Amino acid sequence: MRRFLSAHDRKLFLTLTGKDLVHMKGYRKYFTKKVVWFLITFVAALILNFILPRLMPADPVAAITGKLVGSTTDATASARIYERYQEEFGTNKPMWEQFFTYIGNLFKGDLGTSFSQYPRKVNDIIASAIWWTIGLQLPAIIVGWLLGNILGALAAYIRKGFDKVLMPLSLFLSSIPAFGMAVILLVLFAVNFKIAPVSGAYGFDMIPNFSWSFVWSVITHYQLPFWSIVLVSIGGQAIGMRSMSIYELNADYVKYARFLGIKDKKIVGYVFRNAMLPQVTGLALSIGTMIGGALVAEIIFSYPGLGSVMYSAVTAADYPLISATTLIITLMVLIVTFILDIVYALIDPRVKAAQFD
Amino acid sequence: MKNTLRQVFHSGKFVAGFSIFVFILLMMIIYPLINPGNPLERIGVGTFAKPGTYVSLYDSVSSDRETLRLADADENRIKSMMSMEDRVSMVAWFTAMDISVEGVDMNDTDALLTMWRENYDEKARPAGMTKAQRNFYVRLNNSITSANTAEVLSVTETNSATGEVVDKGKIDKTDYVNVGDVANVKTLPLGTDNFGRDVLKELVSACGTSIWIGFIAGIVATLIGLLLGLLAGYLGGIVDDIIMFVTNIFTVIPSFVLLILITYSLGQDQRGATTVAVVIGLTSWVWTTRSVRSQVISLRNRDHVNLSKLSGHSLMRIVMTDILPYIASYVVMAFILQVSSGILAEAQLSLLGLGPKTTEVPTLGLMMNWAMLYSAHLNGSWWAYFPVILTIAGISFSMNLMNTGLDQVFNPTLRD
Amino acid sequence: MSKIMLEVNELTTKYITRFHEDVYAVDHVSLKIEEGKSLGIAGESGCGKSTLALSLMGYYFAPLHYQSGDIIIDGKNISGMKPDDVRKNILGSEIAYIPQAAMNALNPTRKIYKFIEDVVLAHDSKADKKDIFEMARERFSRLGLPVETLDKHAVELSGGMKQRTVIAISTILQPKVLIADEPSSALDVTSQKMVIKMLRDMMDSGFIKSMIFITHELPLLYNVTDDIMVMYAGQIVETNNSHDMVFNPLHPYSKGLMGSIIVPEEGVRDQKLTAIPGTPPNLKNPPKGCRFAERCKYVMPQCRFNEMPMINLGDGHQYRCGHSHEHLKEMYADEQ
Question: Is residue A119 reached through a cis peptide bond, with omega within 30 degrees of 0 on the bond before it?
Fold first, then answer.
């Protein structure tokens, strides 16, 4: 939703994020503050991740055991399974003890055992999926952000016909859900024109290795998921950049610079730099939403990333896997946001200036 | 107020968005009146019937017949019966005869037929072709040119008691029935889905549910956001600090992760459409809070608010008369966006298999989910998913347009 | 007679609104400034004084458009020049501008010395960056501005500091004419004084050859400028030297304007404080006769129909009114 906030709102947000900096001197304190904030949010995420599923009205272990045991009538067998899961889950202990076991296991890097792919460890499943997701989404979001910003800046600068065509188009593009775009691209290019593979991240008959044919297969499988995410994110970013640029183009410093005889080319440079910088925060603030849509798009392509893992975990009621995936995604978003915050403070002097508020 | 409304309805973008939205709403109201019934009723036994008008074959046999001699009837029949294999064989014959097949489109029936009739020669002996193969082509040629041979279908009835087969008459190639005379004709503008349900009827109903979910989510999120934003912005101090602390946490933790955790924890049975809507609302108030807070902060020290404070007006009264009217436009804009992102959130949840209970109502997300589960996108059943995507895009497009229009009215710098 | 730095003849500029209506915000304005002199322009907000400031630069952005008249800077007529030439050869170097809202006049993400570099390079693309920096440093210390300012971003400066920096940047190329549009109105009293002192100082030491100072605070002009011009509804209604304008305003509007302001200067502040009733006319359809007629308490029937000519009393004193100056003085004397 953030991508449609007005330029005025963005300015306000800027000063509000700036408020964190009041009474602070220099980047080091800013950095420390951001690190502390990162840790607090991380702990909050851990707690939520732990507590929300445990608020479930039914006994999760019983539900899962029931599902697993199914038609088995052997009461002792099901009781044994129940006990084992209770042990693993620790549901027979008080809540606080469970929490510390959970945290302890996390710090040991142990995310538990998957139910649906028993006896595979959740760590393994996540580890094999996470790089696909990062490799797909990070470049796609960055490319979408860059293209969107360039188009938005052009629309603001050229106005007239270009703007008249581009803006409704961007608005429409950003209205198509990521999964919708994924399906449309899939049907067009994979099913109808047959110029791209239908699903997966590489040929189903291949074993991952560093041969040329494997890399090529990965590249061809990469295209559709990549472009569907790029296309969807372009629209929102273009709209944001356009209104930000128009806001800056009307700023007093533009008029003043013109009256000092500075060339338009130089002034446009000022404007787009100033409009682009807040877009970095914009990206930081919207990355959570963007990844959400992109994960669902993964499902459409059966791309072996976290989105597909989450999907299969939900379908198989694989509780430890769901919990781990949500945690990892949250952590990824936190890290990206943190990095963007730090980068932003380094490149935009306006953050530094907030000290003087 | 009246003036604002007039200004809003002068904005082309807003009017365009509003019209699309009203059109969708009208469809939702009018279509069930024309075509009443349970949208989840399974009318088809098979899956994914093509869009179009279905005529009862049984009833048409006993309907009144007219004899029509239409010049192109035979031609049409041949064309409709020409299978892909036939076409491939035809092209193979051309190739064997060294006739250039460059630029021949196998889907262009007319061109292919003309070419065949011009070139086919029963007596020709293409190199390397066996007699059996040549005979195949003779048969193929006959079936293509044999339209003038009189073939008549006979209709029989099997007596269920005796098993006796009774001749009920003949059907000639020139026999026609009027569709209006056939007792049972069903138009399925968007065919049926994987369960054999009428897609259009389902879509209209799903659209209603999804908009309902969006509205509930929007109302919940806007109310929470407005309340927290007002408190934080107006009271400031420790209240502001606490609210902003919580808000900042939920800004960074992706709301859809929370959504997944909560809906999963609720379990399938607890998830009605309204419950899902409320959960979506509960996880998406962050932006409204921030937006309202920043607006209230900029209003807090304005003269008219100070005047009210000095006049000893109650907090409630100041908020209602001196603050709310000034942020109303922002709240409305935020609400519109919440509605459209609520609809999207439901769709994404449903695609993950965490949508509302499947037995009660269809939603746009569930329809999408079903279509994907039954590979509609891979087997060419575009009617099962494309209208759904278009509807979601249409709803959010209309809302985004309305929002942009409002933005231009209330933030004059953005005007063209 | 010393050299004339700026001469404006019958300059008319207009705004074209969204509905394609013409609004003449500067209507046949003529003025002259000699070297070393300064001119104050006063009037209510919306009288066209800020538009005049923009128009004088000879470079127009929509919705402001040039209509007719000449702008001659140091003998060079710039009103016929191509916009790009004006931008390259006139703006910033010959005629410079200090904007109304200096708070936002500087690019927030560019360091001050970088911005000065941009300004100098725009007029002399071969200038050496080191020289520019040296020059800027010298100028800043000469004007009493901390040299560290150069290495800061605009956002790091306080309001008064920003305004003084803007003045230093505007005058970096020693322009022949400086146009200051309410440079001090947004500042606190101390900063205001510093800004005024700085402008005077620059006039005295020849960094600027002449100055136009625009404000709605008449008494400020009394301290700063040699002559004062009063504008009403896009036209000049009276021009005189500062002393006479403040103590003996002739045009009923000038008189009203003086009467409506609390003046801290001795001798002036005893005057009765009165407000001018009514609002200025809509410039989309200006009245046929005297534009002030609706609000004037000395209005005569013919004032509403006859176009008012400018009456020259010599010695740089001009006014635009249907009454003779003797009659006006009599009427004012009767009132006392």
Answer: yes
Residue C238 located in a structural domain: yes
Q: Parallel, antiparallel, or unpaired for β B153-158 and B165-171? A: antiparallel
Q: What domain count does chain C have?
A: 1
Q: Which residues of A touch B251 (CB under 8 A)?
A: 285
Sign for the CA dihedral angle at B73, B75, B78, B83 comes to: negative
Q: Is A256 on the interface with C (CB under 8 A)?
A: yes
Residue C283 lies in a domain: yes
Kindly list the distances between the CA atom of residue A109 and the CA atoms of A105, A126, A328, B50, B66, in Å, as whole numbers in the listed order.
6, 12, 12, 52, 80
Three-state DSSP class for B255? Answer: helix
Question: A348 — contact with chain C (CB < 8 Å)?
Answer: yes
CA dihedral B238, B242, B245, B246 (to 10 degrees): -160
**Pairing relationship of beta strands C227-232 and C210-215 according to DSSP bridges:** unpaired
Within a domain: C250:
yes
Q: What distance in Å separates residue A337's CA from the closest CA in chain C?
A: 22
Tokens, residue A186: 């899939």
Chain A residues within 8 A of C153 when measuring between CB atoms: 349-350, 352-353
Decide if A333 contacts B252 (C-beta within 8 A). Answer: yes
CA distance linking residue B57 with residue B185, whole number of Å? 10
Query: Model confidence over C124-162: pLDDT tens digits?
Result: 888 888 899 998 998 888 888 888 888 888 888 888 888
Q: How many whole angstroms separate alpha carbon C307 and alpha carbon C320?
A: 10
Is the model's pLDDT at B91 over the cut of 50?
yes
Nearest-Cα distance to chain B for A259, in Å, is 21
Element (H, E) at B186: strand B185-188
Q: Which residues pair with C7 in a beta bridge?
A: C32, C72
Q: Which residues of C touch A268 (CB under 8 A)?
A: none
Q: What is the CATH number for C241?
A: 3.40.50.300
B252 and A337: CB-CB below 8 Å? yes
pLDDT of A4 above 60: no
Given a contact cutoff of 8 angstroms between Cβ atoms, the answer to whether B208 and B272 are in contact is: no
CB A283 within 8 A of CB A143: no
To the nearest whole Å, the CA of A244 is away from the closest chain C CA by 15
Answer yes or no: is C80 within a domain: yes
The pTM for the full model equals 0.79
Three-state DSSP state, B46: coil
| Separation of alpha carbons C200 and C192, rounded Å | 12
* Nearest Cα to Cα of residue A114 among A323, A329, A321: A321
Domains in chain B, ordered, with CATH?
A: 2-43+194-414 (1.10.3720.10), 68-178 (no CATH)
CB contact (8 A) between residue A261 and residue C110:
no
C30: nearest Cα among C318, C226, C251, C325: C318
The model's pLDDT over B112-165, given as tens digits with 9 standing for 90+, comes to 888 888 888 877 777 777 888 888 888 888 777 765 555 778 888 888 888 788
Type of residue found at A14: L
What is the rounded CA–CA span in Å between residue A158 and residue B120?
61
C128's tokens:
């050496």
Average pLDDT, chain B: 86
Residue with structure tokens 């953005």? B414
Contact A53/B264, CB-based, under 8 Å?
A: yes
Q: Which residues pair with C178 in a beta bridge?
A: C96, C211
**Cβ of residue A268 closer than 8 Å to a chain C Cβ:** no
Three-state DSSP string of A59-104: CHHHHHHHHHHCCCCCHHHHHHHHHHHHHHHCCCCCHHHHHHHHHH
A349 with C155: Cβ contact below 8 A: yes
Query: Does B358 have pLDDT greater than 50?
Result: yes
H/E segment holding residue C253: helix C252-259
